[in-house]
Specification:
By secondary structure, this protein is an alpha+beta fold. Helix content is about 45%, strand content about 25%. The protein contains four helices and six strands; from the N terminus they run H-H-E-E-E-E-H-E-E-H. Strands 1-2-3-4-6-5 form a six-stranded antiparallel β-sheet. Helix 2 crosses helix 4. The radius of gyration is 14 Å and the shape is globular.
Length: about 120
């Protein structure tokens, strides 16, 4: 099967129960970042706003979301149980997905990208 060209194609490649989760992750990101555009980068769904903003991917037992922003101390505490590495969160498919937390993550990423884009313009 060829690599997906759109997020819709990517999601369609998974079982219905995983598709449901992926669709909700996609919607959550779209609501948090309405100005971002969708793309497939590195063969996974990616939202682009001032560069790659956030990506997500399905695996056998979890959904991965990348990258992880700095955010507040409260946010860092909330994501600690999902942190797989410095830049990766893993949400197990056999547990409720914290969509609100994903929305917060995206909003923090938007702020970080805006600061980064502003700094680049000053140079």
């Amino acid at each position: 099967m060829p690599a997906p060209q759109t997020i819709v194609e990517y999601i369609a490649g998974y079982p219905p129960e995983v598709q449901k989760v992926l669709k909700k992750v996609r919607l959550t990101i779209k609501q948090a970042a309405p100005d971002a555009t969708e793309a497939i980068k590195y063969q996974i769904p990616t939202f682009v706003l001032n560069g790659n903003l956030v990506s997500f991917a399905a695996y056998k037992e979890h959904i991965g979301v990348y990258p992880v922003p700095a955010g507040s101390q409260k946010f860092q505490k909330a994501i600690a149980v999902y942190r797989a590495s410095k830049s990766t969160l893993r949400f197990p498919l056999d547990e409720p997905i914290p969509y609100e937390l994903i929305g917060q993550l995206v909003k923090y990423l938007i702020k970080e990208r805006a600061v980064s884009a502003k700094a680049k313009l000053k140079k």
